[in-house]
Design goal:
76% of the residues lie in helices and 0% in strands. It is built from eleven helices and no strands. It starts with a helix and ends with a helix.
Amino acid sequence: MNKEKTAALKYGFPRTIPVMVGYLFLGTAYGILMKVNGFGIWWVLAMSVLVYAGSLQYVGVTFLASMVSPAYGFLMGLMINARHLFYGISVLEKYRGLKKFRAYLIFALTDETFSIVCSERIPARIDREWAYLWISLLNHIYWVTGSAVGNILGGFINFDTKGLDFALTALFVVIFTDQWKSQKDHRPALAGVFCSVVCVRVFGSGAFIIPAMAGILAILSLWYKGKKKKEAESLG
């Protein structure tokens, strides 16, 4: 490994440590749930490598166990992961000009990786594309490792697994809290909370994600345009 890649790895790894801790535990819980529902290591590895979407994978345990129709699974997957559409829009500038790993970086943009990428300002001495690759790849490895370990342990552990899926919700709360503490402007976070609460009340917990995301995007777009207008006026 050349110095450029090594420097990017040394830069990226420390930033993934909080995700590593969370993903190893969350992945282990997911692997155990898959095992107790009758799905072995190859199922777990295939899901974690190819799907790589924590919340969807947790729901997918029920889908696989209940043998739901592919069409229903597709629609539910679209609703659950609709937020990634907005993640993609948010990192357009971050990923602009990237060529070698662009496809994988888009695929590996999970909630936690997104939170790291959005807050990072990579120094000029570090290769930007390799830094993003290491951050994304390391997080992916943590998730695959955790889920595989959990599936293996699930064959030896006999206990009530009810509530294990709440681990993912707990991680989202931690990420939200960390973002709240690290940012001075809380309007985007408040917009997200407001739209989510309203849409849960209006559409119900099973169908609120897409309208909530649309509402958040609309509010943030108006806020961004207003901010740019004020900046232009101040410069003029």
